[in-house]
Amino acid sequence: MRCPYCGHAETQVVETRDSDEGDVTRRRRRCLSCEKRFTTYERAEIAMPAVVKKQGARVEFDPEKLRASMSLALRKRSVSIELVDAAIERIQEKLRGSGAREIASARLGEYVMRELKKIDKVAYVRFASVYRQFEDVDEFRQLIKEI
Predict the structure, then answer these.
(1) Quick one: 35 and 90 in the same domain?
(2) pLDDT-derived band of residue 127, with 50, 70 and 90 as boundaries?
(3) Which strands form 50-52's sheet, in the order they lie side by side?
């Protein structure tokens, strides 16, 4: 860790404390050159995988886009926000747990459909009809039979 005052590369950790939640470590450091003290904070950074679109473009994963698409499918359905939040959290946990650097948008769409199927069957059919680009009534019938 470089000293923010003189830029010297060697510092000594004087004191270490973990936050109450245990997700941040605070370290008091002393520069071995200029003797000044400063504080650093460490926290784990877990990157979400990038979403690879059908055309090959890569975009950053955005949970708000996920929420918006699920909310559109759930429009005028009596589903609590807590259920939607829990579904989004399960999808994010699945993505984090995969360890993948990228995920195809098709796979992400499948995760959303699984969660919507658990929450609300009508929303599931709405989402699937757009996601799978249904072109006729028979595709709707087939999906409803699967439910």
Answers:
(1) no
(2) confident
(3) 58-59, 50-52, 102-104
